[in-house]
Amino acid sequence: MLETIAANKSFGGVQGVYKHASDATKTAMTFSVFVPAHAKGAKLPLVWYLSGLTCSHANVTEKGEYRKICSELGLIFIAPDTSPRGEDVADDDGYDFGKGAGFYVDAAQEPWAAHFQMRRYIETELPAIIADHFPADMKRQAIMGHSMGGHGALTIGLRNPSTYRSISAFSPICSPAQCPWGEKALGGYLGDDRASWREYDACALIEDGARSDALLVDQGLDDQFLTEQLKPELLEAACDKAGINLTLNRREGYDHSYYFIASFMEDHLRWHAARLGPAAR
Hints:
Elements: E1 3-10, E2 13-21, E3 28-35, E4 44-50, H1 57-63, H2 67-73, E5 76-80, H3 118-133, E6 136-146, H4 148-159, E7 164-170, H5 180-190, H6 202-207, E8 214-220, H7 226-230, H8 232-242, E9 245-251, H9 258-276
Parallel strand pairs: 4-5, 4-6, 6-7, 7-8, 8-9
Antiparallel strand pairs: 1-2, 2-3, 3-5
C-alpha cells in the first residue's frame, strides 16, 4: 500500500512524497518522486538519486534544483531515504553509522541485519514499486548520488550494468575499504572479513571485473572530506587500469554542500538523458 504524503505541482509536473511498509527493512520507508508532464500512456526514463550521510529523501528534493531540467528532458527523478528509521531500529551515537547512514549495504551483523537491508531495498523492492505506480520505463534507468550516495550509485550501478544505462556521482566515497567512514560502516554492518566488503567498494568492484561504458564524477576541490574520506584518485587509477572512460571534473572552489550539487545537477541530468534516449512524451 503506497501512501501519498505530499503532491505539489512544479514546472508542469508533480513532485510527490510517498511512504510504504518495506519488506526489506521491516520498517516504513519514505521516498520522493518527480514526474514531469507527459502524454497519457507514455513511459518515461528515470534517474535514481542516492543521498549522503545524515540525509533523507528531503535534502535533494528541497535543494537539488532538478525539476526544471527534468521537465525539459522528460526524466522521472527518484530520491529514496538513506536508511531504515523507527524507534525499534538500531542506531549509533555517531552521524556516520546507523540511522541516516545505511551505506546501501545488506547488513550481516546484529543488531543491524534486522533492518539495514538497503541494497535489497534499492536494487529490488523500490524499483518494483516504482514500476507498479509510476509511468516509468524500467528499461531506461540511470543512477547517481552524493557522497555516501555516490558510493551507493557507483557500486549499485557497477554491480547491475544491465539495469542502469549510466552512472554518475557528486563527491563519492570512492573506496570505502580505504577510508575511515567506510571502514567503520563496512566493518560494523558486514563484519571483519574484508573480502566481503569488496562488492561494496567501487574500486574493488572494478579490480574484480565490473565494467561500465562511462562514469561521470564531479568533485569540489574545497571539499573538507576530499583527502581523508573521498579519494577520487583511487577511482581514477582503477578506471585507468581497467580502461573505463571516467570523466572526473575537479571543480575549483566548490565544497561538499548542496550549493555544489545544484551547480552541476543540470550537467549530470543532461549526461544521463543522452544515454537514456528520448522520452516518449
